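Weekly modeling sync, notes
Attendees: AB, CL, MP (scribe)

Item 1: holo prediction request
CL wants a bound-state model with protoporphyrin IX containing FE before deciding which constructs to order. AB pointed out that an apo prediction alone won't tell us much about the pocket. Agreed to run with the ligand included and paste results into these notes for async review.

Input as submitted:
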Amino acid sequence: MTDIALALAVHVVAVVLWIGGVGVVATVLMPEIGRSRPPGERFAAFHALEKRFARQSRITTLLAGASGLYMTWRLHAWSWFASVATWWMPAMALIWLIFTLMLFLIEPLFLDRWLGRRAASRPAATFQWFQRLHHVLLGLSLLTIAGAVAGLHGVDLFHW
Ligand code: HEM
């Protein structure tokens, strides 16, 4: 059981760094850039500041995913992915998949170029759209964290 406790510790620390960082980006960094920079400069300022966090996030998402899969395997918990009572389990995997695709594939291959083109003609609206995307992902992540912690500690939304 010690290995499961250690994997959970790695999992939670990785999630704290990663989703905490998304919180700072969405609620502090982006609003400040939107307030202090003219629309045409916002993406450049954002990329300059966010680059280090994106690099960190690639490591923390890998750690969260690997430790999560390890625990699922050790706990024989694959059926949690298919049960409504443990809805937070597929939610965790979905959040992980969205961020992993964004960080490793979509952002480097398509998003940067697509955003750059769109921002050239409509910079303010594009930055606002990008900020909203971060808010939605943060909201879903926090909901999932609350669901996982409550669910693993006895709260069953479907049987009060
Ligand atoms: C492939 C992705 C993931 C898998 C397979 C996975 C799997 C797991 C498993 C099996 C546990 C329960 C361990 C136990 O019973 O002690 C767990 C706990 C947890 N997971 Fe994930 N997870 C994944 C991604 C995520 C993500 C993206 C988040 C955050 C948005 C997250 C947040 C949490 C939290 C906060 C706990 C701890 C709950 C507690 O012990 O109170 N996980 N995860």
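Recorded for review: The mean pLDDT is 93.
Action items: CL to compare against the apo run; MP to circulate these notes.
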